[in-house]
């Protein structure tokens, strides 16, 4: 059984998987990252390593912020998730399936929040990279087709991140062929609305407060200008043909 899969998302609510072997093979051949995902990856869920060193994102995100964010916040979600699924039917489900099965169920809010935050953070770390300015040409044309220009896309992403009123996430997503910017509150994920995530920015205060205090806009602008992993977004977009909606 292949449990090491390239990240991919199926938009079919009942079958949130859809990793195509072709995409995984292409990602492996290109030397791009993959993280363990898929129907076979069940509890206990691994606390996945950061794809870079603690200080790799300085000066935009300090090692201090990153170590708290990863080692305290993300680790707590991951530990809570594993505690909550223990000895329940959820222990036999993939993380993605748990998220979709618990979304919108008030009696499963704790499990949803911890499962979604575990997923969101693993995804987020891969959305960041040092000197992440390069954008693959194919992604650039898709962004230009949907937003008019790369600049307009970045502006919309920044606005979504700054305007998200409380704790939450700003996302670049694919809605079929159309690329869009959306924001979600708390642990919410775009997949529950049938949207496929390409990139995200964490705008919970724990993501920036140690470095920027209340200056969320400044943090967001610097992340967008310096740290976004557009290759990762392109890789997520490339898997689109295998997505069922
Ligand atoms: Mn966070």
Question: What features would you describe in this structure?
Answer:
The protein is mainly alpha-helical and 245 residues long. The protein has 2 domains: 13-45 and 60-126, Fe,Mn superoxide dismutase (SOD) domain (Helix Hairpins, Orthogonal Bundle), CATH 1.10.287.990; 137-244, 3-Layer(bab) Sandwich (minor pseudopilin epsh fold), CATH 3.55.40.20. The protein contains 9 helices and 3 strands. It has helices at 21-29, 63-85, 95-102, 109-127, 137-147, 150-163, 209-212, 216-226, 230-238; strands spanning 168-175, 178-185, 196-202. It has a 3-stranded antiparallel β-sheet with strand order 2-1-3. Strand 1 and strand 2 form a beta hairpin. Helix 2 (63-85) runs antiparallel to helix 4 (109-127) and helix 6 (150-163) packs antiparallel against helix 8. It is globular, with a radius of gyration of 17 Å. The two termini are 26 Å apart. The model is unreliable at 1-37 and 240-245 (pLDDT under 50). Residues 69, 73, 121, 202, 204, 206-207 line the site of manganese (II) ion.
The fold-level CATH name of the largest domain is: minor pseudopilin epsh fold
Helix content: 40-55%
Question: In the residues, how many domains can be counted?
Answer: 2
Q: Taking Cα atoms only, what radius of gyration do you get, to the nearest Å?
A: 17 Å
Give the biggest beta sheet.
3 strands, antiparallel
Shape: globular
- CATH level-two architecture of the largest domain: 3-Layer(bab) Sandwich
Give the count of helical stretches. Answer: 9
Strand-pairing-aware structural class: mainly alpha
Span from first to last CA? 26 Å
CATH class of the largest domain: Alpha Beta
Total strands: the figure is: 3
Mean pLDDT: 84
In the sheet with the most strands, the strands line up as 2-1-3
CATH superfamily of the largest domain: Iron/manganese superoxide dismutase, C-terminal domain
């Amino acid at each position: 059984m292949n449990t090491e899969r390239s990240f991919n998302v199926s938009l079919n609510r009942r079958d949130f998987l859809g990793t195509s072997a072709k995409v995984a093979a292409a990602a492996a051949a290109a030397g791009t990252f993959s993280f363990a995902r898929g129907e076979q990856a069940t509890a206990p869920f691994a606390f996945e390593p950061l794809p870079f060193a603690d200080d790799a994102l300085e000066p935009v995100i300090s090692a201090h912020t990153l170590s708290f964010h990863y080692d305290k916040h993300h680790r707590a979600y991951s530990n809570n998730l594993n505690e909550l699924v223990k000895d329940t039917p959820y222990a036999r489900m993939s993380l993605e399936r748990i998220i979709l099965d618990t979304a919108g169920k008030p009696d499963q809010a704790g499990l949803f929040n911890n499962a979604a935050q575990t997923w969101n953070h693993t995804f987020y770390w891969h959305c960041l990279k040092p000197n992440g300015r390069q954008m693959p040409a194919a992604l650039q044309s898709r962004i230009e087709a949907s937003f008019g220009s790369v600049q307009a896309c970045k502006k919309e992403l920044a606005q979504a991140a700054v305007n998200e009123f409380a704790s939450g996430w700003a996302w670049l997503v694919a809605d079929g062929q159309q690329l869009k910017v959306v924001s979600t509150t708390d642990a919410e994920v775009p997949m529950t609305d049938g949207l496929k995530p390409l990139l995200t920015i964490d705008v919970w205060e724990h993501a920036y407060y140690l470095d920027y205090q209340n200056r969320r806009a400044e943090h967001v602008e610097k992340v967008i200008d310096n740290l976004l992993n557009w290759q990762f977004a392109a890789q997520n977009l490339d898997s689109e043909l295998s997505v069922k909606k």
